[in-house]
Design brief:
With about 750 residues, the protein is of the alpha/beta class. Helix 9 crosses helix 14 (about 345-355) and helix 18 crosses helix 20. The termini are far apart. The protein binds ligand MGD (2 copies), iron/sulfur cluster and molybdenum atom.
Length: about 750
């Protein structure tokens, strides 16, 4: 018996936990943590199920072509060869004009798609397709892109090694990002405080110094309320705000517009904002980067000023004064009313934050999956801005990343082509600016040619029939596609509509590059080329292999490094000084000698139009949107028929709609659950373990009741993605209306939808 140990990392979710695989006679038998790896402290149950995943009987192992009509119960799959399969797909792609050709990709945060994410984008862009379906609006958009309107970049990462207080807001890393959960626990042991904001007392909320239980969707109100308490107590970083944020910039009271240099004199600089100098009692222009500290003027943050302009006097107030006024509308009593959090707990949270700086925070889907996500996110970002901890030691830091070549090819799509992206016209400040579209918009285009027809779709995973809310036209759209090719591991509900099924190998059977493991400066400097633990099963291939082969067939070899993935990898690595060979010789990975500096804005400014952290976004104002954060109640409010609030969450056993077919995991979570308060259950005659029905104005699903005394009696938490269970039970997304969405990002009410629960009588 030949036993081999192989170092790698688990690629199944964003955590990318360092691991060691055991391979006996070419068979993967187990996977264990790699304690020498920066994210290798622990593995979750999904990694433990790796052998079952590789050898699962349900896997697709050969390319297959449909032989029956799309509405037939059985597609009549016919096995074909790779050459025939890819030639068929290439012919269909060549025949479709670029905007009629769409791509789709599974989330790289909850699958191993990160391996090929960049290459699939490169292919779409080389084809000049403006449309790529990606769950970003409900996922990472609100932490990686939307914060750019405040910070000029994403939220960065808590500097756990130096932080004084951690705020986890709608983020449960114990279930979803093990390496962050470990980092939080280490920081807590060192003495850092922990505040968790979550309607459920899940994961680290159990050991937090303070657990705040907001009503789902009320996060914006809480953020403004906390900001109010910090402002009222003057426990904010005045110097940071005056020098590095737009807080002192004057806004005209009548128009809500920022004043600029041209307002002070006809030959003034219109690119410079204006602030009130308290020392001279005069308005002055304000450079993005402040002059040396000695010459610093004392710029007003509060008050109302009369500024002389060539067109007469204008009444102005600093941005900060206007922001403070918005926050003042949220005293603890009102937060308690709207968010359901007792006033003394709101006060306690503000105190904990102010007493334990530096503050760091992480927020993810708990605050993102709402139709008010953009504004809630801005409110949280603004609250964080007050502390002055951004990019400071112990705050949220942008750690230095391994320098890799940019290979996604975003700039191959011209601005004119980009404007054709589905949803771009309605949401130019959201994901469509990167070509990322929602299924709602895709399906409308397919079914109603609105605003133009889409006829051909190539998807690398992504189970959007399950993971997206109820979009009208779900089935009709996929049926009407002229051609749909799907690269998958298993036959998902979407596969029923595919013309061509391409077998993909699991991450355990293919190589993958991870440049940076995110959770600390050291982890972010770590680069690893994960080896294939075992050979690919059947004729399955990696997504990257498929993309490169297709590119060659489409005459795009030149854009794809001669069609050679190895040459492409070398080119991608070149700026880092690494080579594929060097990485293969160091299977545990290589730590680059990168240094992370703090407060990099002092050198570079923030990547916003003003060069400063922006409480007021003139870009959003120009787009007719509110330039300042606010709390916007969800459009969907509970009422007499649907008095409860439906939310969802993730569990350690599964990623989204996957893995239900693996017995090791299924034993640990055999059936779809719905969590509810014992009083809510009692009123309805429901007992622990009963099958119940959850209903919304969109439909009904079944699930097993699990009683949880820590929930608010009005909150119900269901699951989604249970397609491998009879009768569509447990699929909460069938209950949610995909026509309700955030006006900027397109995010949906996956966490905040009115519902009712009833016992199912036998
Ligand atoms: N096991 C597992 N891990 C995963 C994934 C997976 O599917 N399974 N998916 C990966 C992906 S793609 C992502 S995006 C991440 C997501 O990672 P997380 O954001 O941590 O995922 P969730 O558990 O869905 O949501 C976090 C918490 O938000 C809470 N919540 C619900 N509604 C609200 C609300 O209105 N306000 C607030 N403040 N909180 C609310 C939930 O109770 C939950 O505990 O996880 C990644 N990791
Ligand atoms: N109600 C509700 N809905 C949600 C969420 C929620 O919290 N609540 N979370 C949302 C979030 S955060 C996200 S990111 C989306 C996720 O939505 P999706 O990106 O659609 O994720 P999955 O549903 O897990 O589907 C992934 C599919 O890709 C396949 N796959 C896995 N690995 C590979 C691979 O390496 N190659 C290929 N070709 N295929 C692969 C899997 O078999 C699976 O069928 O769901 C969203 N939906
Ligand atoms: S948390 Fe689990 S699934 Fe995610 S990378 Fe770590 S071991 Fe894999
Ligand atoms: Mo996600």
């Amino acid at each position: 018996m030949a036993t081999e140990l192989r170092r790698g990392y688990c690629a199944l979710c964003i955590s990318r936990c360092g691991c060691i695989g055991t391979v006996v006679d070419g068979v993967l038998t187990r996977v264990d943590p790699d304690p020498d790896h920066p994210t290798g402290a622990a593995l979750c149950v999904k990694a433990k199920a790796a052998p079952e995943m590789v050898y699962a009987p349900d896997r697709i192992l050969y390319p297959q072509r449909r032989t029956r009509p799309k509405n037939a119960a059985d597609p009549g799959w016919e096995r074909i060869g790779w050459d025939q399969a890819l030639e068929l797909l290439a012919a269909k792609m060549r025949a479709a004009n670029p905007e009629a050709l769409a791509f789709a990709v599974a989330t790289p945060s909850g699958t191993a798609l990160a391996d090929s994410f960049a290459w699939l984008h490169r292919l779409a862009h080389a084809c000049h397709s403006p449309n790529l379906v990606f769950a970003t609006e409900n996922c990472n958009w609100h932490k990686d892109y939307a914060p750019a309107y405040t910070f000029g970049a994403g939220i960065g990462m808590p500097d756990y090694d130096h932080t004084g207080c951690i705020l986890l807001w709608g983020f449960n890393p114990a279930a979803t990002w093990l390496a962050q959960a470990s980092a939080v626990q280490r920081a807590k042991k060192r003495g850092a405080k922990l505040i968790v904001v979550d309607p459920r007392r899940a994961g680290l909320a159990n050991s937090a110094d303070l657990w705040l239980r907001p009503r789902p969707g009320s996060d914006g109100a809480l953020a403004l309320g906390l900001a109010h308490l910090l402002i009222e107590a003057e426990r904010y970083d005045r110097d940071f705000l005056a020098q590095w944020s737009d807080a002192p910039f004057l806004v005209a009271e009548d128009s809500g517009r920022l004043l600029n240099g041209a307002d002070l004199s006809p030959d003034g600089d219109p690119t410079q904002a204006v602030a009130w100098n308290e020392a001279t009692g005069m308005a002055r222009t304000c450079p993005a980067r402040p002059p040396n500290a000695g010459a610093r003027a004392r710029l007003a943050l509060r008050g109302r000023y009369l500024v002389a302009t060539p067109n007469g006097p204008v009444i102005c107030r600093p941005v900060f004064d206007r922001f403070a006024e918005r926050c003042a509308a949220w005293p603890p009593g009102r937060v308690a009313e709207v968010a359901g959090i007792p006033a003394d707990q709101v006060a306690r949270a503000a105190e904990l934050i102010a007493d334990n700086l530096p503050l760091s925070f992480f927020t993810w889907t708990g605050t993102c999956q709402h139709d008010n996500a953009t504004q809630s996110g801005r409110a949280i970002a603004a609250l964080y801005g007050l502390t002055g901890c951004l990019d400071a030691s112990g705050g949220n830091v942008w750690f230095s990343k391994p320098p890799l070549a940019e290979v996604m090819g975003f700039d191959w799509v011209s601005p004119e082509e980009r404007q054709r992206t589905l949803g771009y016209r309605e949401r130019p400040h959201g994901p469509p600016q990167k070509g990322w579209i929602t299924t709602r918009d895709l399906f409308r285009a397919i079914v109603a040619s609105e605003p133009y027809p889409v006829s051909c779709l190539f998807a690398c995973g992504g189970n959007f029939m399950q993971s997206k809310p109820n979009t009208r036209f779900n089935d009709a759209a996929l049926e009407q596609l002229d051609f749909f090719a799907l690269a998958e591991l298993v036959e998902t509900p979407a596969a029923r509509y595919a013309d061509l099924l391409l077998p993909v190998c699991t991450a355990w059977e293919r190589e993958g590059l991870q440049a940076g493991f995110q959770v600390s400066a050291a982890a972010e400097a770590h680069v690893q080329l994960r080896p294939a633990m075992v050979e690919a099963q059947g004729e399955s291939r990696s997504d990257t292999w498929i993309v490169f082969d297709l590119a060659k067939r489409l005459g795009l070899a030149e854009q794809f490094f001669g069609g050679d993935p190895e040459a492409a990898l070398a080119a991608q690595l070149a700026p880092s000084g690494l080579t594929p060979e060097r990485l293969r010789a160091a299977p545990g990975g290589i730590r680059l000698d990168l240094e992370t500096g703090y407060r990099k804005y002092q050198r570079d400014g923030f990547a916003t139009p003003s060069g400063r952290l922006e409480f007021h976004s003139e870009r959003l104002r120009d787009a007719g949107l509110d330039p300042m954060p606010d709390y916007i109640p969800s459009t969907e409010r509970p009422g007499a028929r649907f008095p409860l609030i439906l939310t969802t969450a993730k569990w350690p056993q599964y990623c989204h709609s996957q893995q239900r077919h693996l017995p090791f995991l299924r034993r640990r979570m055999p059936e779809p659950l719905v969590e509810l308060h014992p009083d809510t259950a009692w009123e309805r005659g429901i007992q622990e373990g009963d099958w119940v029905e959850v209903t919304t104005r969109m439909g009904r699903i079944r699930a097993r009741a699990r009683l949880d005394r820590q929930l608010a009696p009005e909150v119900v938490c269901a699951q989604y993605g249970w397609w491998q269970y009879p009768d569509g039970a447990g699929d909460a997304n069938r209950l949610i209306d995909g026509e309700c969405f955030d006006p900027v990002s397109g995010s949906n009410c996956l966490r905040d939808f009115p519902c009712q629960v009833a016992a199912i009588r036998p």
